[in-house]
Specification:
Elements: H1 7-14, H2 19-28, E1 31-32, H3 44-50, E2 52-53, H4 55-68, E3 74-80, E4 86-93, E5 96-100, E6 111-115, H5 118-123, E7 138-142, E8 145-146, H6 164-171, E9 174-176, H7 180-184, H8 191-197
Parallel strand pairs: 1-2
Antiparallel strand pairs: 3-4, 3-7, 3-8, 4-5, 5-6, 7-9
Helix pairs in contact: 2-4, 3-4
């Protein structure tokens, strides 16, 4: 259903010829949507029109761009405590998983497709996932959600917010990363890694 986009929209998506170029587009061309406070969930068409998006909206645009390169559009939810969840557009290449993502935290974005399992991919975000109190907050990751289940609501080009997608992401099964004992033994963030994660932050 990639042909739901206009020719101009498809040209934009297809010129992003690799996952790394998609990530660069999300980082450098799409401004971080801090004004909405998470109260919008716009389709990729609307993000392209406004060149503005937050985590969820960036993941949807990333998934659409990956689809234009021949990947199945899929999302993965990272669940947190005392913090917001984070959504990745995930893809497989040469049998391994990678991801593109929009984030105000510099450590929660692109991952090369070198992870053999989704658990390995999720764990690669652990040390970079923290709140402003310096607590490491990542706790779970979801099973991958195939966006074709939302073709009926026109997720690629809808003018209305596509809230059905984040609502589904919250409800799907999530796998725990840590035991209760493991959670209690966590150290606080290293101040240098904290500073690196906040580099260029707009929120």
């Amino acid at each position: 259903m990639i042909d739901a986009f206009t020719k101009a929209e498809l040209r934009t998506l297809r010129r992003l010829g690799s996952p790394s170029r998609i990530q660069r587009f999300l980082d450098e061309e799409v401004a971080y949507n801090k004004e909405a406070g998470g109260h919008t969930c716009r389709s990729p068409r609307r993000v392209l029109r406004d060149m503005l998006g937050h985590c969820m909206e960036g993941a949807l645009l990333g998934a659409a761009a990956l689809e234009a390169q021949g990947h199945e559009p899929m999302l993965l939810d990272l669940g947190a405590v005392h913090d917001d969840d984070h959504v990745l557009a995930v893809f497989r290449q040469n049998g391994c998983w990678g991801a593109v993502a929009k984030s105000d935290n510099s450590g929660l974005r692109f991952r090369e497709p070198v992870y053999r399992t989704l658990r390995e991919l999720a764990l690669s975000y652990f040390e970079h996932y923290f709140n402003l109190r310096g607590e490491k907050t990542l706790r779970t990751y979801s099973r991958p959600v195939r966006l074709k289940r939302f073709d009926r609501i026109g997720w690629r080009t809808a003018e209305a917010d596509v809230w059905a997608i984040p609502e589904h992401l919250v409800d799907v099964h999530h796998y725990r990363i840590l035991s209760a004992a493991g959670e209690k033994s966590l150290s606080r963030m290293d101040r240098r890694l904290f500073a690196a994660g906040r580099l260029g932050s707009v929120v």
